[in-house]
Amino acid sequence: MAQSVLSLKNVNIYQEGKTILSDVNLEVTHGEFIYIIGKTGSGKSSLLKTLYADLPLTEGEGKIVEFDLATLKEEDIPFLRRKFGIVFQDFKLLPDRTVQDNMLFVLKATGWTDLAEMDAKIEEVLAKVNMKDFANQMPHQLSGGEQQRVAIARALLNDPEFILADEPTGNLDPQTSTEVLEVLRQINALGKTVIMATHDYALLMKYPYKTLKCEDATIFEVVQRTV
């Protein structure tokens, strides 16, 4: 039986005092690939923020890997986040640093100290996304798709158990979106759990996976043909 890596029971999610999602019940097992869909403002990003503790869990039960979201202490949040690789729509690369130095910044910030080990790790993750030859480029020298590949590589630096991707193809053209999703599929095939918020229904139809929909402050599973 597959191991549960995320369990939410009777969870209510709030932002600035407003109910965003109510009575969320969700179980995710190791190695799943899950889409979260819904209109802008429907709660997709709020759900992901709750998972990596950017929003506190104040009502309901939530366990993700070995962490209890309801009782999580602030000093434990960095340790929780090391379990995740987070990919954003707008890449969030440091514009004044090369790809290599963007990676070094993350490794140093998360406790790495051996330069040779850091260089080897950077080469490894860039190779996984076919960006090894771009290590010395600046972000502005890369296309949107290349920047997102670098962002995915950055998310892999600490061997996360989860990839949380918040609209990772939102700023990309259809062909590039497909290429980025292929990278996420390859990472999922290596055993990583992927949760991806998206409004790109063309990708859902091309690559069907379990799909959850946020609508009317609720979240529920939908079958592909009705999304």
From TrEMBL:
Residues 6-227 form the ABC transporter domain. InterPro entries: AAA+_ATPase (IPR003593), ABC_transporter-like_ATP-bd (IPR003439), ABC_transporter-like_CS (IPR017871), ABC_transpr_LolD-like (IPR015854), MacB-like_ATP-bd (IPR017911), P-loop_NTPase (IPR027417). The keyword Nucleus does not apply. One of its GO terms (molecular function) is transmembrane transporter activity. GO terms for biological process: cell division. GO terms for cellular component: plasma membrane. Keywords: ATP-binding, Cell cycle, Cell division, Nucleotide-binding, Transport. Belongs to the ABC transporter superfamily. Part of the ABC transporter FtsEX involved in cellular division. Important for assembly or stability of the septal ring. This is Cell division ATP-binding protein FtsE. It comes from Flavobacterium aquicola.
